[in-house]
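Hi, here's the filled form for the chain we discussed.

Project: internal
Contact: R.S.
Residues: 223
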Amino acid sequence: MAPRNASFKKIILGSSSMARRQILSAMGFEFTVMVHLTADIDEKSVRKEKPEDLVMALAEAKRELESLNAKGKCRGLSSGCYNIEAEEYQLSGGKRTACAVNYCRHTVFEGTVREKPSSKEEARKYLRDYSRGHTSVLGSVVVSNLTSGNRKGGWDRAEVYFHEIPDDVIDNLIEEGIILNVSGALMLEHPLTLPFVDTVIGTADHVMGLSKALTEKLIQEAL
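And the returned structure, exactly as it came back:
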């Protein structure tokens, strides 16, 4: 469902994530994928003691890297977090505004933030740790009203519990290679992973890449 009291015009998605596309479609948004907008940010240079503070700091850092021209077009985005730029919202009173929505997601295992695995061996360790265990997923959203300068941010958490993940499934996931580009090597929606998910405490959309409820709440507050 699109945000209340606004008729949505267009967004630009700086991510090739199929899960994020599906989530945006389910929210009622039309969007254009512009993957070439992504730019690098050294996530390891941003350190915080608490994982909750880290995901917020990364989303804010990504927001600071953006350069937006007068028409609201994106020039720079980070690879670790993703930008969803809402070019126009037609408010109930007829006023138009624009919002930039920045999202960052990280997997947290036993209190330690897990970024993208640096090798196949590290990815294998991650997945074996999840087998018969659980991990947390923290995601932050920062919404900036490009007209008023109003900015709202927040974070959400979900817990994912797993059945035993067979070694051959882990091997297949690693050889396929997609999980090597994902925080914590965790892809809930992957057809090889999904059968071994026991319980999700929280929402699946948050784990997959974008919290619908949190995003819509912050958009309303920023508008």
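Let me know if anything looks off before we file it.
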